[in-house]
Automatic annotation (TrEMBL):
Organism of provenance: Daphoenositta chrysoptera
One Pfam family from the record: Acyltransferase
Molecular function per GO: 1-acylglycerophosphocholine O-acyltransferase activity; lysophosphatidic acid acyltransferase activity
Superkingdom per UniProt: Eukaryota
GO biological process: lipid metabolic process
Phospholipid/glycerol acyltransferase domain residues: 69-156
Protein name stated in the entry: PCAT2 acyltransferase
Database matches in InterPro entries: Plipid/glycerol_acylTrfase
Family: Belongs to the 1-acyl-sn-glycerol-3-phosphate acyltransferase family.
Length: 160
């Protein structure tokens, strides 16, 4: 019986996750379409709300479809309380759960990740701080950008 459930559930889950991923790509594309000050200015208004609510909800839904249920105990710190949110060690796809639970903050990511076809668009909508491994000044520039965003008095979302 378990094998039969797996044979039915695996393709169903794969189809649902693919649909959710494409929907997230569409939301990210709409929210960042002809964005003023792309990458330099923070998303504001309907664009930020769209990323915050839609992508956060879609991410939680995707994890639910995969079989994960996450409960938050306590209160998540607001961006004004903690402009920098540290999640470590970040080495798996479970980091997206933290992003969904904290309202889709800006993240620090390799610059190469932004060129991925679907995930790159979704990642770009989070306005990441891109780290280039080829640039010798990248580490210093990354620290400066994180500091600039943390001191922006809530204009930028939390940085994770």
């Amino acid at each position: 019986q378990t094998l039969l459930q797996g044979i039915i559930l695996l393709p169903l889950r794969a189809v649902c996750i693919t649909f959710i991923l494409l929907l997230a790509w569409l939301v990210a594309s709409i929210a960042t379409f002809s964005q003023p000050g792309r990458g330099i200015l923070p998303l504001q208004g309907w664009r930020r709300r769209m990323i915050h609510t839609a992508l956060s909800g879609l991410t939680r839904t995707a994890y639910f479809v995969m079989g994960f249920q996450v409960k938050v105990k306590g209160k998540v710190a607001s961006p004004s309380e903690a402009p920098i949110f540290v999640a470590a060690p970040h080495s798996s796809f479970f980091d997206a759960i933290i992003c969904a639970l904290t309202g889709m903050p800006s993240i620090v990511s390799r610059a190469e990740n932004l060129s991925s076809p679907v995930f790159g668009t979704i990642l770009s909508s989070l306005q990441p701080v891109a780290v280039s491994r080829q640039d010798p000044d990248s580490r210093k520039n990354t620290v400066a950008e994180i500091t600039r965003r943390a001191l922006s008095r809530g204009q930028w979302p939390q940085v994770i």
